[in-house]
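Bench log, entry 3. Co-assembly request; chain sequences pasted below exactly as received.
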Amino acid sequence: MIAIFKERMITLPERLEIGETAISARNVSVTISEKPILKDVDFELRAGEVAALVGPNGAGKSTLLSALTGDLAFTGEIDIAGKPLDTWKVTDLARVRAVQTQQNQLAFPFTAYDVVEMGRSPWQRSILEVEDESAISEAMEKSDTSRFTDRRYPSLSGGEKSRVSFARVLAQRTSIILLDEPTAALDIKHQESVLGIAREMADEGVAVVVVLHDLNLAAAYSDTVTLLSEGSVVAKGTPREVLKADIISNVYHYPVQVITNPETGEPIVLPIRK
Amino acid sequence: MAAMMRGRLGATITVLSIGIIVVGLFSLGLGQLKLNPMEVIHILLKPIGIDLGISLDNPYAEAGFWSIRPPRLLMALLVGIALAVSGLLMQAVFGNPLAEPGVVGVSSGAALGAASAIVLGLTFFGEWTIPVLAFIGGLITTLIVYTFSRNKGKTEVVTLLLAGIAINAFAGAGIAFLSFLGDTQSREQIVFWQLGSLNGSRWIHVAVVVVPIVLGVIISFFLVRKLDLLSLGEKSARHLGVNVERLRLVTIILVAFMVAAAVSFAGIISFVGLVVPHLMRMILGPRHLPLLITSVLGGGLLLMLADLGARTLINMSDLPIGMFTALVGGPFFFYLLYRNRKAAGGWG
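Structure output for the full assembly:
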């Protein structure tokens, strides 16, 4: 109960400046039941950037993300906003970074609005509490979920649930956002819109990490691409540096060709079909 | 939606509060010596210096009244509160609407602790011996059920219920062995307990259980917001700043605490923790603050009603109250299982 009274005087975290290091991971390894899932991974993300994590199934993308959120035990070093991850208190961390996981389960039938509102809970009893309503309505509008406001979350479709979870992350208004396959269940329009919003937020100074399967979405919206395979980083750099036919064909064990979008100059990865 | 829910909450609180007052007054008046509600109010107000000037037919009514009926009524209220709130907390922390102290075996664990105090004649904590042993038994069983029924941050219905069966079987065996060991008197006491009854509640019992139960409810109010977030799953709750491990531990201890207090003097009364929070959830939705307020009132009211039935339905006899709650709770449990299965598309 003492902790509850202490929280009345929350010191707000400083927003990161554009270009400031948001996440820095060095030599990160994760072993689950004696099986190495992640081996000596380095990862760097600055405020204002979108970093895509890509790779085949089982490459360790989600594991890396879980390590970055502090959900998994790891060896190596991870700094969040300049402070080692294990020195952060969970309550403080929630005001710095927001996470959308792959699971969109909910034990009890809250409404979509309630779920988005949960994203505001880290700011309870802080001066930012006054932003609650505007943050919620803005998040729901952006993610195109306003019309579900009063719907019970379990009655929504997979894609709708995923957008409501995305809205919850937006409502949290943190400097760092981690998204684990936010587009997996979405139609084209909403895939583009979710990553478009992520891009916009990065342009305003937020640091975004996003696990993606669709390489072309990664090419279109991210600043850096980290390609993982069997727990190690195979390539990293700008989309153009990483998304090359030989690298991709090799890692995915499937022949692809990469062409250039004549309008934007972005690489487009096409599987070669017989 | 929010305004509508607030309206519903207000209406529910009003109805339940009025229910508690009305049932309370009637209940205090019913029994071998019948009093009408005005006479009851008269007796209740007299000690604080308000005299309504009603003359009672029976000159002994007052003395007998004070030592028997109010403690029993308060006991019903407190035990009902403890069971309903424990049910609500367990459901939140297990993330499963079917968790309930009676069903998953916490009550029988507490009863095993209490029965050993009776049979072995343990008195090292005076009046508190039975509650303390009940608390230990309840805590151990809650921890066991929790550890065994969780898988990857989720509690599956089947595992939860199977863990409950195992615990109930084990505690049942322990209680059977203790009744075998005990003399006739303690044997009777144990049987009476397994069925649950508020017969013989005295002021001293009320004094013993009121502290843990009121404390438990007050602490629960500080947890409601976090319990809401826990619905998102443990990971997401942690991402939103909830110290999940601590929340879990505090909640489990609270449950053991309150169930032990309830079981110590009232025995095993099942299904209150299942029925009350569920009905409130149907009316008010899943937010834990309104659920906690109304589960306190609803649990108290339900047990007051059940005890009234136990005392008065059959003339001159005191029926076991656990029988009543199970009579309503059993079919209700079936219905919940059925719905749960339909929603999940299987027994998983």
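The domain at 2-96+174-271 of chain A is CATH 3.40.50.300 (Rossmann fold). The mean pLDDT of chain A is 92.
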